[in-house]
Amino acid sequence: MLSDKNKKIIHDFLNTSKENIIKDHLSLNQKASGKFIAGLAVVDNENGGQLIDGAGYSYFLEYGRKPTGSGGGGGGMSLLDSIKIWFAAKGLTITKGFNPYSVTKSIHAKGTVQHRKGGNSGVITNTVNDSVLNKFFEKFATEYHTEAYSEVSKTLTI
């Protein structure tokens, strides 16, 4: 079982990560409807906590969307409907060559711009990477070791 101090270390890390992801999301000009930011939440669990992407957009914001068929079949909103909402949220002007239908057709054929660029946008990986995680693990391990040593020492009679 985690102590309150260790739970606080985890929550501080997750809340800082959430704030940094939001900052990167905004600086990359990825915000459209605000659902990604609204869906990010730190929740308690048996391991201390978890950062959740309630909107389910983090993968696509980071890596883009590969070319797809137009058949849908995912059970959710169609790509076209999503693009219509995106146009409205971004306040984009619809023209003959730039409209939800042409964007949807392009994504189905070529994927999103982020996918075509390759790699990642950094919206997640700037915050959640080996360097950042190693610093967190060091802080957590040091505190956990100190607490464990203290508890074990209490039980020893020499």
3D structure, described in words:
The protein has 2 domains: 104 residues, no CATH class; 44 residues, no CATH class. The chain contains 7 helices and 2 strands, in the order H-H-E-E-H-H-H-H-H. Strand 1 and strand 2 form a beta hairpin. It is mostly helical. The protein has a two-stranded antiparallel ribbon. Helix 4 crosses helix 5. It starts with a helix and ends with a helix.
Name the helicity range. 55-70%
Structural class comes to mainly alpha
Number of domains: 2
Mean pLDDT: 88
Q: Please work out how many helical segments DSSP would assign.
A: 7
Low-confidence stretches: none
Distance between the termini: 27 Å
Number of beta strands:
2
Shape by Cα distribution = elongated
Rg on CA atoms, Å: 21 Å
Main sheet attributes: strand count, strand direction, barrel closure: 2 strands, antiparallel
What proportion of the residues form beta strands (DSSP E)?
5-15%
How are helices and strands ordered from N to C?
A: HHEEHHHHH
In spatial order, strands of the major sheet run 1-2
Quick structural gist:
This protein has 158 residues and is mostly helical. 56% of the residues lie in helices and 5% in strands. The chain has two domains: 1-64 and 119-158, no CATH class; 67-110, no CATH class.
Spell out the key features of this protein:
158 residues; two-stranded antiparallel sheet; mainly alpha; 2 domains
